[in-house]
Amino acid sequence: MKNAVEKRLGWLHNQWVEFAQAPEARLLRWLVEPSEARMVEAWLKKEGDERTGECPDLFLRFDIPFVQPEAYGLELREMLVAMVAESQEEVSLGRVAPGQSGAEAFFSACEALQRHYESVCEVLAVVLVPGQVAEVKAWRQWLQKALAHLRSPKVRVVVLDDVRVRVLEPLAQAEPERVKTMVADLDMPGAMEEVARGAAGMDPAGGRYRELLVRLGAAAGRGELHQVTRLGEEAVALAAGQGWSALVVAARWAMGAALLVASKPTEALEHYRKAEAVAVDAEARGEAQGAELRLKSRLAMGAVLVTRQEWAEAAVLYEETAPMARKLADARLELECWRMASFCRESIQEVDKAWESSEQAWSVGLALEPEARASSTLPYVAEARVRLGRAREGDAAARRLEAEAESLLGNDWRPDTQAAGGQAA
Is residue 251 part of a domain? Predict the structure, then answer.
């Protein structure tokens, strides 16, 4: 009997076969949920390995970022040439002809490769999963132009399309014969529940807890808040009975996060407060993880208070939490506590207190290693210091603070996006 993962890989296999047998189709547009993308990638990776692949087809994966449309085809061809060279096979891919577009040159080389392996490869599947797409419309246009160069039915293209946004829908409608849409429809929550039920049979208490958390996540995805609470409370009772403080806290966090997403901040806050109480008891008993669990529970509480715009209470919470982060030697979270305290004070026009907290955050940031600083929220602190400095002392102070930020963070120090107000567990 196949397990949950094997069944879903089988579904994907059947979808591919249906596409590959459609004589006019050239591009497979796989519609996937974010939770399904890894499973599809796993199937593609399996089929791309001659030791595990079941299809009589050759799958080649290209993850080159789509940044410059005019150069993308040639970049793909260069990657294909490198793949062939690495295989140490004597394969002639032909030359790039004068006036030939990058896409035409690439797919011409793909046809040559397929002909070389024709005795063992029915279809060459070109899997395009660019690590970055600079402009969605340009990506769609590139694919549409590429269809003109997919002359042979033995060379096909595979792309993934997020089912929530469907950026390739216009292409699918414009080319209904050549672009075949498959909805992956893998029911990943169901897969997780199957896996969890299997684990429950091997480790009754731990397996049952995992099953409850998986089912809770699935219920949250369906918006079934009554089920979220029922499953979460059962998980809490089970973990408490086993003396698993960390898992009691985790179940509270899961319920809190689900309720917060469902616009139930008051109920979410209550679960985070209960999580903190459990963490405090664990810390008092000398459990090493108690202090960290308490810190993260409080940060989740702060995020809820920010969501509710209860600025004064949130500011106090962050100010009282920063020393906890310092005690744990977690400089990044200490910086975040002071940054959020400043943000909350500024939101109620307490400029001087906001400034004090931003200075605390800046001091923590100065002590970070350059690598840690580069991925921290310090640029947002710098921006707040400039803004608060201007409010307190005028433009001259703001210019001085801008110079400090530039000296530490570089010329392009200003953040591109607005900072998030806080984080829930």
Answer: no
